[in-house]
Amino acid sequence: VDRGYYSVETVTALVALKIRYPERITLLRGNHESRMITQTYGFYDECQRKYQDGEVWQLFTDLFDFLPLTALVNRGIFCLHGGLSPSLKTLDQIRELDRIQEVPQDGPMSDLLWSDPDPDNDGWSISPRGAGYTFGKNITHEFNHQNGIKLIARAHQLVMEGYDWGHDRKVVTIFSAPNYCYRCGNQAGIMELDEKEHYTFLQFDPAPRKNEDLMAKKAPDYFL
Q1: Active-site entry in 32, 81, 156, 167
Q2: Integer distance in angstroms from the first to the last C-alpha of the chain?
Q3: Residue 221 CB neighbours (<10 A)
Q4: Catalytic (active site) residue 32
Q5: Contacting residues for 184 by C-beta, under 8 A, at least 6 apart
Q6: How far apart are CA 216 and CA 213, in angstroms?
Q7: Rounded to an integer, what distance in angstroms lies between the CA atom of residue 159 and that of residue 136?
Q8: DSSP element (H, E) containing 137
């Protein structure tokens, strides 16, 4: 949510798919699925504009508290929105987190939603985002080896071609919002995985819309 004109419609469609196909759809929490962030970056205002009160926003943000933080595909692909945490060395430690709450400003739960891989430096560094950390290639290798993981699949960062490999192909960033904020001109990506765990990436451009040029010129600053 937050980063477009149709957050309400998008999240409603995703929740409806989860209800219709509960065993086939898994929704993970991102850093914007929180009360504080949605009040700053647009989702709260969108709910108020479309429903004239805050009840819909409240219901959605209550729901966000119950979304899982991570997922494991075939015991080898670790999926999450952000990145790793210096406080979490094993998957069992992640499973023990009390996740049914508002996203804290710091700590391991926040790190999972805010951290980013560092392409140049090893070790841990404070994130320039103001939450989470950046983590180097050595951290990725240690975490993957200790937990028997082949790949970390995450989002959270704009990549122009929709996906981007890092850390000796032990991390992949997948960004599924084309033309981010109606002005970035990026492609979006989806990763498909077959029964033999072969990766295929689908790239796509934004769907054309009427008055898109006009909408882009009026994009509010909070989109960026």
Answers
A1: 32
A2: 13
A3: 5
A4: yes
A5: 158, 160
A6: 5
A7: 18
A8: helix 137-147
